[in-house]
TrEMBL record:
Stretches assigned to the Class II Histidinyl-tRNA synthetase (HisRS)-like catalytic core domain: 9-318
First and last residue of the signal peptide: none
Additional remarks: This function is generally fulfilled by the C-terminal part of HisG, which is missing in some bacteria such as this one.
Entry keywords, A to Z: Amino-acid biosynthesis, Cytoplasm, Glycosyltransferase, Histidine biosynthesis, Transferase
Subcellular compartments: Cytoplasm
Protein name: ATP phosphoribosyltransferase regulatory subunit
One BP term from GO: L-histidine biosynthetic process
Origin species: Vandammella animalimorsus
Main function: Required for the first step of histidine biosynthesis. May allow the feedback regulation of ATP phosphoribosyltransferase activity by histidine.
Subunit structure: Heteromultimer composed of HisG and HisZ subunits.
Annotated GO CC locations: cytoplasm
Length: 404
């Protein structure tokens, strides 16, 4: 096998795409900082038990595992940063009030999540700990919406749900784990026949309530009215609907044009989320760009069962649908040995934020010069910036890198 071949679903990031990713990363972190979220950098590798605790149990098959050569213990490369953030909040920060944290770093999956997906993601996320009220849910959704307001991205569609609705319908039902798993699978697939089989031994009220969920998706107004009517015999579910309606009203008051819908049968992450859950969909993505919600049990295993809500997204997926701004052009400077004035001129320009590429001896026709629209010339004894003819090949850089 050739030495340059990479593992399946792993790819290099070339300069054009890397500039785009870095610009988005900075933009996302700036947005999070404007909401008061503090940046943390969890380690790429941890002992396996830390990555599998609490919310991390579902990630077992996605974690790439190895043996630590120093301790002999099993370690894993993170497949999701949320368990790490929960550990940091519970064990290291140990704050009594609200903690707002954000992060952005690579995660590795043992298998791609879907056909064609990468196994190496650049995961950005934000999480708020310490507030159990719906205000935290509202804030985290607002932050997620703000993060998707990138050039070239149409208004995202927000889909809301709440896992407590299904839990309220299943409360008191005596069923095996396999039966409950079949119910969740049928709800996720909106498979009425499979749901009917899975709930064959359930009380009539629960069967009808679960079957009703399959139809409860779409625009908030009609769905909410139907839900209150068809779930009227479940007071706990009605209380959850009250909270969902409050959240909807707050979001629509802020942006009346926000595309918003409900999906009350969406149980993805059922064992992970503890309340409101949401997804953001944008044109060009065949899956949700953002997923998030409330997960109050995330820090329990670390000794602090704090309320928590958050979301995450893959910056690489975001880059595929967000427009890339023009590349900053550079200044070409010659190589002149021992010329202190030239060195000072270059240093001054770089300190002002300019990109200065110094042409090395024998490389006057190198590709680096193709991104230069200005050049340093010696005029009247001083090094001055002048316009330079931009070579046509520079405009093809992004196309060439994309095609490789």
């Amino acid at each position: 096998m050739s030495a340059w071949v990479l593992p399946d679903h792993i790819a290099d990031v070339l300069p054009c795409e890397a500039r785009h990713l870095e610009g988005l990363r900075r933009s996302l972190l700036d947005v999070a900082a404007s909401f008061g979220y503090e940046l943390i950098v969890p380690p790429l590798m941890e002992y396996l038990e830390s990555l599998l605790t609490g919310s991390g149990q579902a990630l077992d098959l996605q974690i790439v595992k190895s043996v630590d050569q120093l301790s002999g213990r099993t370690v894993g490369i993170r497949a999701d940063s949320t368990p790490q953030v929960a550990r940091i909040d519970a064990h290291l920060l140990n704050r009594t009030g609200v903690a707002r944290l954000c992060y952005c770093g690579p995660v590795l999956h043992a298998r791609p999540e879907r056909p064609g997906a990468s196994r190496e993601l650049l995961q950005f996320g934000a999480e708020i700990y310490g507030h159990a009220g719906p205000e935290a849910d509202l804030e985290i959704v607002q932050l997620a919406l703000a993060c998707t307001r990138q050039p070239g991205i149409a208004a995202p569609v927000l889909v809301l749900g709440d896992v407590r609705i299904v839990r309220s319908l299943l409360a008191g039902v005596m069923a095996s784990m396999d039966t409950l798993a079949a119910v969740h699978t049928a709800l996720a697939a909106k498979d009425a026949s499979a749901l009917q089989v899975a709930t064959a031994d359930f009380p009539q009220a629960q069967r009808e309530g679960l079957a009703a969920l399959l139809d409860l998706y779409g625009e908030p107004g009609p769905v909410m009215a139907q839900a209150r009517q068809r779930l009227a015999s479940f007071p706990a579910a009605l209380k959850v609907l009250d909270g969902l309606q409050w959240l909807t009203q707050q979001l629509q008051a802020e942006d009346q044009a926000l595309p918003l819908s409900y999906d009350l049968a969406d149980v993805r992450g059922y064992g992970y989320y503890s309340g409101v859950r949401f997804s953001l969909y944008v044109p060009g993505c065949n899956d949700a760009l953002v997923r998030g919600g409330r997960y109050d049990e995330a820090g329990a295993v670390f000794g602090r069962n704090r309320p928590a809500a958050g979301f995450s997204l893959d910056v690489k997926q975001l880059a595929r649908v967000a427009s890339q701004g023009p590349q900053a052009m550079a200044i070409r400077a010659p190589w002149v040995e021992g010329d202190a004035a030239l060195r000072n001129a270059i240093a001054r320009l770089r300190s002002q934020g300019e990109v200065v590429l110094q042409t090395l001896p024998g490389s006057e026709a190198a590709d680096d010069a193709q991104r230069c629209d200005r050049e340093l010339r010696l005029s009247n004894g001083q090094w001055q910036v002048h316009q330079a003819a931009l070579q046509p090949a520079a405009a093809q850089e992004g196309l060439l890198e994309t095609s490789r």
